[in-house]
Specification:
This protein is an alpha+beta fold. It has 3 domains: about 80 residues, Winged helix-like DNA-binding domain superfamily/Winged helix DNA-binding domain (Arc Repressor Mutant, subunit A, Orthogonal Bundle), CATH 1.10.10.10; about 100 residues, Periplasmic binding protein-like II (D-Maltodextrin-Binding Protein, domain 2, 3-Layer(aba) Sandwich); about 100 residues, 3-Layer(aba) Sandwich (D-Maltodextrin-Binding Protein, domain 2). The chain is built from 9 helices and 11 strands. The strands form 3 sheets. It has a 5-stranded mixed beta sheet with strand order 4-3-5-10-6. A 4-stranded antiparallel beta sheet has the order 8-7-9-11. It has a two-stranded antiparallel sheet with strand order 1-2. A hairpin with a 2-residue loop joins β1 and β2.
């Protein structure tokens, strides 16, 4: 069976709005034309997908079954088109990066070696690292684990030691290092993502206040309401006088990785991989924090 994707899209828009008039407006067509398109799709499938009601339209049982398949079909078609365009235009690459991760040296090297290429760098939310690659919003992403890595090629670039962010008058400020046991009883900020919290706090979910932004976390720590486990700060930012960091001796480091789509043949992706391995490791790798108290930068990433 050859399904017309334009008809499939009409059906998904109708299912979303539940109303022929609103769906027709979204699709920039007329209600009679939309009705004809739906009938054509129903004839192709041999099943009725929608019933008109006094309040609009309602999915039939067959329509309920077809809807998720239709959405997956359209998504697969979009991905196929994006992948084809990427293969046909190997002079373009988009590089994603997360907060407090510096990709400039590798991006500069790529632009130097490929002056005719269009090289873009875009900031991403940590939750978008994998999806940005699979949706072709980015071709390479430099990010911190953990995030799902299926269908991706992942290369560890460097490790970031974990430190605890404290107010300068905290009982542990000034120590050479601490252990997780030393932090027992402290309040830790929690996010809306328990699986990420569990990673940063060694499997123990934090019980402190809920925060949604880096700025909120910093203010919470500075005010003495909590302490936070973060990667050792790096990057070009301004120091704060009311915060300090102390290394955590028994915490595994976090891993900064380069992630790309598995099997991606874009020559610029491989060129960026080489540039990242040359410029974002070794000398670029953050060193273990000083044993003496350090004033902390105001923008540590949310774990």
């Amino acid at each position: 069976m050859d399904l017309d994707l334009s008809l499939v899209r009409c059906f998904t828009v109708l299912a979303e709005h539940g109303h022929f008039g609103r769906a027709a407006e979204t699709l920039h067509t007329t209600q009679p034309s939309l009705s004809r398109q739906l009938r054509r799709l129903e004839q192709q499938l041999g099943a009725r997908l929608l019933d008109r009601t006094s309040r609009g339209s309602k999915l039939t049982e067959a329509g309920e079954v077809f809807l998720p398949q239709a959405e997956a079909l359209l998504h697969a078609a979009e991905q196929a088109a994006a992948a084809t365009r990427a293969a046909a235009q190997p002079s373009r690459i988009t590089i994603g990066y997360l907060t407090n991760i510096i990709v400039t040296p590798a991006v500069r090297e790529l632009r130097h070696r490929h002056p005719d290429a269009e090289v873009r760098a875009v900031h991403l939310n940590w939750r978008d690292a994998r999806e940005a690659l699979l949706d072709h919003r980015a071709d390479a992403v430099v990010a911190r684990l953990p995030f799902p890595t299926d269908r991706l090629r992942v290369t560890v670039l460097y490790d970031e030691p974990r430190v605890v962010l404290l107010p300068v008058d905290h009982r542990l400020a000034g120590k050479e290092s601490v252990t997780m046991d030393d932090l027992a009883g402290e309040k830790f900020p929690r996010s809306a993502h328990p699986e990420l919290d569990a990673f940063w706090y060694n499997g123990s979910p934090p019980d402190g206040p809920l925060v949604e932004s880096v700025e909120d976390k910093i203010e919470l720590v500075a005010s003495g309401q909590a302490v936070a486990v973060i990667p050792a700060p790096s990057g070009i930012t301004t120091f704060r006088d009311d915060l300090t960091i102390v290394p955590i001796a028994d915490a595994e480091p976090s891993h900064v990785v380069l992630a790309t789509r598995a099997g991606d043949r874009n020559r610029l992706v491989e060129a960026f991989r080489k540039a990242a391995e040359a410029h974002l490791t070794r000398d670029r790798q953050p060193s273990t924090p000083s044993r003496s108290p350090r004033r902390a930068r105001p923008g540590p990433p949310l774990p």
